[in-house]
Design goal:
518 residues; alpha/beta
C-alpha cells in the first residue's frame, strides 16, 4: 500500500490543539463528504448522506468558507490502482489540513479503508477513524463515537468474497446479513443527492465473480450480488422526481445482472425496458459491460430501444489472445472487431468506449502490435489507457516477465498517442450528423454551454459544445446538428428543445416498485 511521506508541517500533530466548538449542545451535527473514484462511490456517498440526514445531521461544504464548518469530514476513498490510492491518501491529508482550522474529525471510508483497515489507520494518524463497509449501517453511531473521543478500532480486512455463498442463487437471502454499499434503498430516506445536475448514477449490482489476474476489486467489494429490479426502478422514479433526466447504470459487472435472481440471464434486458417507462427519465445508459457476456438480445436492446442510449462501455483490456489468457480473460482481436461490427450494423452512430492495459507481465512487441491493429480497426469513441502495476494479493503480482517501469510508460505513451488520433478522427466522422444533447452547463462569460450526446458518458468521454447565444439551461434536452469538432469534443448547433419524458406507465410496469417506507 502507498504510505505517505512524513509530514513536515504542523498540521494535526499531537502537540497542536484543535479549534474549540462553541455551539450549543443541542445543535445538529454537521458532516462534509468528499468522494473519490468511480460513479459507484458517488452512489455510496449519497447513501451515507441519506443515513446522516435521516438521523438529523446537517450536510455542509467543508471548502466553501461561507457556511458553518463540519464536525466530521468523511472521505470516501478509492483503491482501484496505485495512483488512486495515492490520490485518496493525499485527499485525507488535505482533509486533515481543513479540519485543523475548525477542529473537525477526519474519517476514512470507501474502498481504501475497507481494503487496508488497520494498516491504513496505523500509517495515517491524521485520520481519526477508518471505517469499513460493515460500519455503514451504523454510521451515525460510529461517528458519535468518534466525536466523543472513542473511535472504533479499525477492522482487520477479510476477503469479502467469503461472506456470500458460492452459488449465486443463494446470495440474495444471505446478503440480508452482509453490508453491501449502495443497496440500502428506502424511498425518500436512503439517499440524498450531493449534486444537482440532470445526470445521476444508479447502482444495479455490486461485487464481481470474475477472477481477472490483475484486479483486486472482488476481494474488497465481494462476490456479485444484484439489486432487486423493483428497488432499482423505485430509485429511478425517485431520481426522476428530483430532476434527473439521464440514469447511468453502474456496477462492477453489469452484464452479470440477474444471474442470482429469478429470470436469470435476461434480467438486464427486462430492467432496461422497464426503466424506459419511468416518468421524467429520458436516457438510460448502461456501463461496465463484459464483452464475453454481451448476448445478442442485450446488444439489440441497447442499440435499438428508444430511451436507452446506444452506448457500449466494453471492458476489452487488450486484444492479444496470449495476453488476455494471462489476464484470465477471453477474446481476441477478431472477436472484438466482430462485436463492434454487430453493434454498428444495428446502430451506426452508437458510442463504444473501452479501457486497455499495456505493459502486462509477458507482453511482447507482437502483442502491442496486435492491440494497435484492433484499436485502428475498431474506431472506438473513447479509450482509457493504463500502464500495468502490481496490485496487492492478485495473481499477476506473482507473475514472471515483469516489464521495466520505463518500458511500460513508453508503451502507455505509444498507445495513448494512437488512440488520441483515432478518437479525434471518430469525432470528425460525426460532423453533419444529428445528436440529442443533454445540457449540463450553462453559458457564462468564461464558459460556453456544454452537454453530452447519447454516445458520450459523464466524466470519461468527450462533450458537446453549443454555439454562443443558445440561451439553453441545465437539464434541457435538445436536438442538434454537429457542425465541427474541438479535439474529441463536438461543436453543435441546437435545432429544437425536446419535452421531458412523460410516457404513460404500462400496466404492471412499476407494480411493487414505488413503496412507502416502513
Amino acid at each position: 500500500m502507498y504510505v505517505p511521506e512524513p509530514r513536515r508541517d504542523d498540521v494535526r500533530s499531537a502537540d497542536v490543539p484543535r479549534a474549540a466548538d462553541v455551539r450549543s449542545a443541542d445543535a445538529p451535527h454537521r458532516a462534509a463528504i468528499w468522494t473519490l473514484g468511480c460513479a459507484r462511490n458517488e452512489v455510496d456517498s449519497e447513501e451515507l448522506a441519506g443515513r446522516l440526514a435521516g438521523s438529523g445531521w446537517e450536510l455542509v461544504d467543508a471548502d466553501s468558507g461561507d457556511g458553518p464548518p463540519p464536525d466530521v469530514i468523511i472521505v470516501n476513498t478509492c483503491a482501484f490502482v496505485e495512483q488512486a490510492k495515492k490520490d485518496s491518501i493525499d485527499t485525507l491529508l488535505a482533509a486533515a489540513d481543513t479540519a485543523s482550522v475548525s477542529g473537525a474529525k477526519v474519517v476514512a471510508v470507501g474502498c481504501l479503508a475497507e481494503r487496508y483497515g488497520a494498516e491504513l489507520a496505523e500509517n495515517l494518524p491524521e485520520a481519526d477513524a477508518v471505517l469499513g463497509f460493515d460500519a455503514y449501517p451504523e454510521l451515525v453511531e460510529r461517528l458519535a463515537d468518534v466525536l466523543g473521543g472513542h473511535a472504533p478500532a479499525p477492522h482487520l480486512p477479510v476477503d469479502r468474497r467469503t461472506l456470500l455463498p458460492i452459488s449465486p442463487v443463494d446470495r440474495p437471502a444471505a446478503a440480508l446479513d452482509v453490508a453491501v454499499p449502495g443497496h440500502g434503498w428506502v424511498p425518500n430516506l436512503a439517499r440524498v443527492r450531493l449534486a444537482d445536475g440532470p445526470v445521476a448514477p444508479l447502482k444495479i449490482a455490486s461485487g464481481c465473480d470474475r477472477r481477472c489476474a490483475f484486479c483486486a476489486i472482488p476481494s474488497f467489494r465481494g462476490s456479485f450480488i444484484s439489486r432487486p429490479p423493483d428497488d432499482v426502478v423505485a430509485e429511478a422514479a425517485w431520481l426522476g422526481m428530483h430532476g434527473v433526466r439521464e440514469l447511468v447504470l453502474v456496477s462492477e459487472n453489469s452484464t452479470s445482472y440477474g444471474k442470482d435472481l429469478l429470470g436469470g440471464g435476461r434480467a438486464l434486458v427486462h430492467l432496461l425496458r422497464r426503466l424506459t417507462h419511468v416518468p421524467g427519465i429520458d436516457r438510460i445508459r448502461a456501463s461496465y459491460l463484459q464483452p464475453a457476456e454481451v448476448r445478442p438480445d442485450l446488444l439489440e436492446v441497447i442499440a435499438t430501444t428508444p430511451g436507452v442510449a446506444p452506448y457500449f462501455d466494453l471492458s476489452f483490456q487488450h486484444a492479444s489472445p496470449a495476453v488476455l489468457r494471462r489476464m484470465r480473460r477471453f477474446g481476441s482481436r477478431e472477436d472484438f472487431l466482430d462485436l463492434c461490427l454487430r453493434i454498428r450494423v444495428l446502430a451506426p452512430e452508437a458510442g463504444i468506449r473501452s479501457n486497455v492495459i499495456v505493459g502486462f507481465p509477458g507482453e511482447t512487441e507482437a502483442d502491442v502490435v496486435e492491440l494497435e491493429a484492433f484499436l485502428t480497426g475498431a474506431r472506438l469513441d473513447a479509450v482509457g489507457v493504463f500502464g500495468y502495476s502490481d496490485e496487492d494479493g492478485t495473481e499477476a503480482e506473482g507473475y514472471a516477465g515483469k516489464l521495466p517501469a520505463d518500458e511500460i510508460m513508453a508503451r502507455v505513451s505509444r498507445i495513448s498517442a494512437l488512440v488520441d488520433e483515432l478518437m479525434v478522427q471518430r469525432a470528425e466522422d460525426r460532423v453533419g450528423t444529428e445528436v440529442e444533447v443533454l445540457i449540463e452547463r450553462c453559458e457564462d462569460e468564461d464558459f460556453e454551454c456544454t452537454g453530452r450526446a447519447a454516445h458520450q458518458a459523464p466524466e470519461v468521454d468527450g462533450e458537446c459544445v453549443l454555439e454562443r447565444g443558445s440561451g439553453l439551461e441545465v437539464g434541457q434536452l435538445v436536438r442538434a446538428v454537429v457542425i465541427g469538432t474541438e479535439g474529441t469534443d463536438l461543436v453543435v448547433a441546437a435545432r429544437e428543445a425536446l419535452p421531458r419524458s412523460a410516457l404513460p406507465v404500462p400496466p404492471g410496469a412499476l407494480v411493487g416498485a414505488i413503496r412507502q417506507p416502513p
